[in-house]
Amino acid sequence: MKKLSIGIMFLGLLLAPFMGSKASANIVQTNDTYTYDMMEKDLDSLDEQFKDLIEVYNIGDTPYGRDLYLVKVGYGDANVIYNGSHHAREWLTTTLNMKMMERYAQAYNSNSSLGGYNVKDLLHNTTMWFVPMVNPDGVTLQQFGLDAFPKSVHNELISMNNGSSNFDRWKANAQGIDLNRQYPAGWDSVIAVNPTPSWKNYKGDHPFQAPEAKVMRDITYILDPDITLAYHTAGQILYWNFNVEQSNLARDRRIASKFSTASGYRMVDTHSGAGYTDWINQDFDQPGLTPELAVYQGETNVDPSKFQEAWVRNKHAGLAMADEGVKIHTKKEKNTEQKTVYVDQKAKTNILPSNQAAPYEQVQNVRENYHLTLPESVELYSWYQNCQACTLQDQQAADIFDELVHFTEKDSKKNIIQDKTWTITLNTEMDASSATKENVYVMNQEGSKITNPSIKVDGKRVMITSPKSNYQSGKSYTLYVKELVSTQGKKMEHPVEMTFTVE
């Protein structure tokens, strides 16, 4: 009988230092056309300058390969979502989103107040989540026209623009879908002004058809916001109450009134449907506001010279909504001590991305089963959206799951007889009660445990035998050993795994 010798170490402790962050000069410039490329450059600079106060996540891409970004500002339990540029020509809202995150981070680092709000205190109680440009393809088409797109699609884009090669009026994404007509609340009732892909108002064949809308769906489900704001640019008004439940009406009116007072925007009842905040109001039962930033400019973008007025109106209103997010937030998860999670084959099957569920659904399941924080959940979603051949050895995955316990891999074995007894030899006498079927087991590659193993302990040795009928010739299995305890009460420092193939 062959003997497998596995050296066992015992528990150690590793401590890592905490690094702070520091702010400096302005990054976001607001006096000119604000482009996708400018946004990417500024996001890199903000991420670098403000360290862990601002975290930037790549959460997907557009049909033409432009990245979609989610930006985290703050550390609190309450969650408020801000987003801009659902509509291509309304890119002034991106400028606003970017300036908000920069100015609030500066105020945090200088421990200063804005509009009567101590920003540092506020960002320790709430986290602001920004999607500054929901529609990068559409924005780029509106700003640069056909030159920014492959020649192979020029005729299609011109056709969707009613034969014109001037895209100043463009609102849709580059597939001709109006992203703010892509949400299910009231979608069926929205009149199809344009029944085919067009420069504006085509609602698509079904909700969440556009990749950009799917990403917004996913990230909204993951964040489960307490308040949401989707910025647009036409009219200096505030939409706030699509199909709001009667029980929430007083709350939502109070919050909308607070924003209205801070911004000077007149509150207007919402009747259209299929918009992002319509969906928030109806399906999430949470406040969803749509501020229209500027006087209507006709079928084109708002001139950048109008930004300063929009900034004055909105810089404190954004903080007011973060404050309201804290007030209405109810903690959805309790901080209870969790059982240690080991990354065996079953865990790998559960964690790796699957085509069987929408990404946000899988993220929610992994978050619950493996006790991820909300930022870790966002990082997991980013990983799902961007990895090509995902493995748990990817650095991003390792960072997400660094608090889970990974098995140390031993050399694999081949041509193993089906009824082999594995003998594990330790360097000290072992407490036999710790050698349970939970701590010493064999698992197939699908993550199912081999049933009815026999486990025996003899001093420093543990022997495990599984019935011959439980193995299949040519298949691979993995032996796992964890949480063994010595007679002196010391635990294993590193659990181990060894893969073998049956002859």
Could you walk me through the main structural features you see in this protein, from its secondary elements to its overall organization?
By secondary structure, the chain is α/β, with parallel strands linked by helices. The protein folds into 3 domains: 36-141 and 203-328, 3-Layer(aba) Sandwich (Aminopeptidase), CATH 3.40.630.10; 345-400, no CATH class; 407-502, Immunoglobulin-like (Sandwich), CATH 2.60.40. It has 13 helices and 20 strands. The protein is elongated, with a radius of gyration of 28 Å. Mean pLDDT is 91; it is low at 1-23.
On the 0 to 100 scale, the average pLDDT is 91
Write down the CATH topology of the largest domain.
Aminopeptidase
Uncertain runs: 1-23
Please report the first level of CATH classification, the CATH class of the largest domain: Alpha Beta
Number-wise, the strands total 20
Strand content: 15-25%
The CATH architecture term of the largest domain is 3-Layer(aba) Sandwich
Residues in helix, %: 25-40%
Structural class: alpha/beta
Contiguous helical run count = 13
Sketch the major β-sheet.
Answer: 9 strands, mixed
| End-to-end CA span | 16 Å
- Quick one: CATH superfamily of the largest domain? Zn peptidases
Structural domain tally: 3
Shape: elongated
**How big is the Rg?**
28 Å
Describe the structure in brief.
The chain has 503 residues and is α/β, with parallel strands linked by helices. Helices cover 31% and strands 18% of the residues. It has 13 helices and 20 strands.
List the helices and strands and how they pair.
Layout: E1 4-5, H1 36-50, E2 54-61, E3 67-74, E4 78-83, H2 92-109, E5 113-114, E6 117-118, H3 119-123, E7 126-131, H4 136-144, H5 154-160, H6 211-223, E8 227-230, E9 232-234, E10 237-239, H7 246-263, E11 266-268, H8 276-284, E12 288-294, H9 307-328, H10 345-351, H11 359-370, H12 374-386, H13 395-400, E13 408-409, E14 413-416, E15 421-425, E16 440-444, E17 454-458, E18 461-465, E19 476-481, E20 496-502
Parallel strand pairs: 1-15, 4-7, 4-8, 8-12, 9-12, 10-11, 13-20, 14-20
Antiparallel strand pairs: 2-3, 3-7, 5-6, 10-12, 15-18, 16-19, 17-18, 19-20
